Amino acid sequence: ANWTFDKFFGRLERLTKIGAPKLALPSRFVVSGAKLVDSLFKQWHMASPVEPVAIEMAQYFWYLNCTKASRELNFKPRDPGETLHETVVYLRENFLGGDAFRK
Description:
Layout: H1 5-16, H2 27-43, H3 52-57, H4 67-73, H5 80-96
């Protein structure tokens, strides 16, 4: 499925019971902020927690089309909701502790 950020975070919010971000900043502020954070961390000789290029790439609409894989490899895509659910379960169990995101 090719979901918008709103749809993705809405589904993630329902699964985790953690509120989705309420504020979406304009692209120019997000990219500029990432560049600022990156430059500050470089001045402090530390690894930046954000890569400005990755933040800039996230501003674009990306999508995948599995038609060729379906035709040539007999690929069958999974339900995206099931995949998201299993990802949340995996992260809870393996990285965050079993009670993460539970209220």
